[in-house]
Amino acid sequence: MPVWCCRCSLSGHLRNYSDTETEGEIFNSLVQYFGDNLGRKVKAMPLVEETSLLEDSSVTFPVVIIGNGPSGICLSYMLSGYRPYLSPEVVHPNAVLHSKLEEARHLSIVDQDLEYLSEGLEGRSSNPVAVLFDTLLHPDADCGHDHPSVLHWKLEEHQYIPHLVLGKGPPGGAWHNMEGSMLTISFGNWMELPGLKFKDWASSKRRNLNGDRVTPEEVARYYKHYVKVMGLQKNFRENTYITSVSRLYRDQDDSAGLEREISAQQLQTEKSKFIKRNWEVRGYQRVADGSHVPFCVFAENVALATGTLDSPARLDIEGEDFPFVFHSLPEFGAAVSKGKLRGRADPVLVVGAGLTAADAVLCACSSNIPVIHVFRRRVTDPGLIFKQLPKKLYPEYHKVYHLMCAQCCPADSGLFSDYTSFPEHRVLAFKPDMKCILQSVSGLKRMFRLSAAVVLIGSHPNLSFLKEQGCYLGRDSSQPISCKGNPMEVDAYTYECVKEAHLFALGPLVGDNFVRFLKGGALGATHCLAARQKEQQRLLVGGGGDGPA
Fold first, then answer.
1. What is the distance between the alpha carbons of residues 492 and 514, in angstroms, rounded to a whole number?
2. Which of 40, 106, 124, 520 could form a disulfide with 130 if both were Cys (CB 3.0 to 4.6 A apart)?
3. pLDDT, tens digit, for every residue of 444-490?
4. Could you give the CA distance from residue 462 to residue 443 in angstroms, rounded to a whole number?
5. Which parts of 212-328 fold into alpha helices (H)?
6. Cβ neighbour number for residue 392 with a 10 Å cutoff
7. Residue-level pLDDT at 544
8. What is the DSSP string of 268-280?
9. For residue 163, what are the contacts with CB-CB under 8 A and spacing of at least 6?
10. CA-based nearest residue to 526, from 497, 499, 493
């Protein structure tokens, strides 16, 4: 199958440059080239056979970001040259941290020692740079304070690192697919990205926020607007689907410097013979007429910012694929809004004890649909998310938690009319006649007839484009990657994968599920990439080394 390949096309594009032109000028032209060519119709794209050898191994893109949600957007913002500095008129409430910041006030935070600045800080993320960046943007937020950020941002165009951001839909990622009427768990100002206050954006569009929570629809619109107003559009490509991300290797004995894919078996037996080179990213772009245009781009570094909402977690039980069993809140919400479940005597089964499951309960109850709520934990389990939410700020979720505690179904009685919870239960099977079998922790089984079921027990990222589905990058390589149970193992201060150099992971993939904290990944990755770019430039100016591999 023919495929458009950036390197084969770019090698001709760069041949006309003189030797005196700087690396930065070449890459700036590279960006213009991508902007002019990646979105063309297929007939305008240069084609090569997929089996062709790739001749020019020196021309690659510095960074390709896979995913255009808030993690990818924030990383693009910082790679575009935006740099955070300590504001002269603001004092951080943490005196020790402020003293450290004063020591290098002339430097941007990107160019400082992040490990030194992060030392001693505590927060609701296990990643120290995430905690650091959050406390700089929202000082003492967990104490209920609304202190201003201690940072101000400068655009330093010479810091620009060329990059592409590849996403399935418009900028904002999965936020465009979430239930638009539900409120986010975080305040509006915690959803914002650097340089544009959410309140400023929303002031002309709706009520004065004043710390209120907002809807996913508003958040999605904010992220899309952010990319435009910050001038990041040239880096973004929508409607792109990644099918393969693989490392290329070069034979040390190959004087022509040809790159190729090496089988795992060959690499294992002849490891010393090959040099790791750049990343090959393959996929297709869906164009206006619905057709798929294959593409192939190459990168020195790849940043994974895919989130973890691609594949809903499953129970893996009998009957789970029956049409009356849903696995996402939007699907369930659509069925409710279309009136498909209204007026039915049989209850809806909701499986799960997280906030998404609680949203499903609220959705059903608001339409007067009776609910059976099944979850494995005890209602007194301290790990339940409801116990971490203040009642005054999240009354609707505490309403659900109250029902979970107050309307449990005893073993010897029937269901409540509106809502019945089954703590410490699991679903054994779904039957074709729209019945389900539940089992308690003691082994007692019960059967109920349903009007529908919705299973909301988490989700997994779709990393099918990586070898081993990306499992080898996790803390436990025998398990699939998940936000809570098995995040990717990365360097704490650079977000580079421990088991794969020049591959970075951000956001939920490393355990940061809240926008507040995923911005730290952009800081850590930019810190690393900027330092490497400076080192490459130093080598080029000094005449040492062979340039980037």
1. 17
2. 520
3. 999 999 999 999 998 889 999 999 999 999 999 999 898 878 999 99
4. 35
5. 216-229, 264-269
6. 7
7. 55
8. HHTGGGEEEEEEE
9. 61, 62, 63, 64, 65, 75, 76, 79, 235
10. 493
**Nearest one of 399, 417, 326, 337 to 362, comparing CA atoms:** 399
DSSP character at residue 514 = S
> Tokens 């059903």 sit at which residue?
364
Nearest CA among 545, 525, 526 for reference residue 535: 545
Q: Which residues contact 230 (CB under 8 A, 6 or more apart)?
A: 77, 80, 82, 195, 196
Torsion (CA) 529, 225, 184, 181 in degrees, nearest 10: -150
Query: Which residue is it, tokens 């958040």?
Result: 219
Over 90: is that where the pLDDT of 230 sits?
A: yes
> b/e for 401-421, b at 16 or more Cβ within 10 A?
bebbeebebeeeeeebeebbb
311-312 and 459-460 beta bridge pairing = antiparallel
Percent over 90 (pLDDT), the chain: 54
The full length of the chain comes to 549
Query: What count of other Cβ atoms lies within 10 Å of the Cβ of residue 310?
Result: 14
**H runs (alpha helix) in 87-151:** 95-103, 114-118, 128-137
Closest by Cα among 64, 163, 131 to 521: 131
Query: Among the listed ranges 86-90, 179-183, 215-219, which one has the minimum average pLDDT value?
Result: 179-183
Rounded to 5°, the CA angle 176-181-183 comes to 90
pLDDT digits (tens, 9 = 90+) for 362-387: 999 989 999 999 999 999 999 898 98
Give the lowest-confidence range in 52-61, 92-101, 403-412, 435-444: 52-61
CB 526 within 8 A of CB 79: yes
